[in-house]
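Researcher: Go.
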Amino acid sequence: MSDQDRPAVEEIEIVGGQGHRLSGRLHRPGQTARGSILLAHCFTCSKDLHTMTRLANGLVGAGYATLRFDFTGLGDSEGDFAETSVSANVTDLTRAATTLIQMGFGPCGLIGHSLGGAAAVLAAHRLKTVRSLVTVAAPATTAHVTHLFADQVDELLSQGRGVVTIGQRTFELNAGFVHDLERHDVLAEAAELGRPYLVVHARDDEVVPFDDAEQLYRATSEPKRLAALDRGGHLFADRASADALLNAITTWFDATL
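Model: Structure:
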């Protein structure tokens, strides 16, 4: 393979919905791209989570230009994570999709993981440039995320701002984040999607129950598919489940983009 035919990764900047500089990486295939894909990472994660990097590398290998980026206040992006919200994520996704168009990569596929999947459903409703949608391990409601810091929600709401512990990491949030979660109806937006939708979920996911995938699938209209993977957990960390995830997604986009 010549250097000209090898995939390349380009560092790009996106102006987010709140005006901050967002860090992105565009994976370009060596040949003319057969389509473009935008990736949305999970809550408190980043574009460099292995779930995102493996998908990006696999998709560019399949011929798709693929953009992964950090939401405001996370990873290498500017901004205060405490001031972000699902609504802010939706506007960040809108700006990222616009950036793809401006770079010459036309109607795209959109993939959202976990809470990023819920944001992707909400963003797709306003993005006519999204031709096909995939959610991975996504909750059926945005409020689902509060279970990660359930014992700290009341204190956060009463004080207006505070530090929460998620996993073994701490993050500062404000009460506006929690209030914003109540504004969104993911299932209602899925019902109005009107575009091909693939729901991918592992049955052994201990963070977002498989029932959420079934709710999303029932809510939307054809063409749709539910890819129920036996293994993978929430992050599809092992190679076999990561390969199964990539195969389900590339098969879907090959048929719908």
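Model: The beta strands are 8-15, 21-28, 35-40, 64-69, 108-113, 130-136, 161-166, 169-174, 197-202, 224-229.
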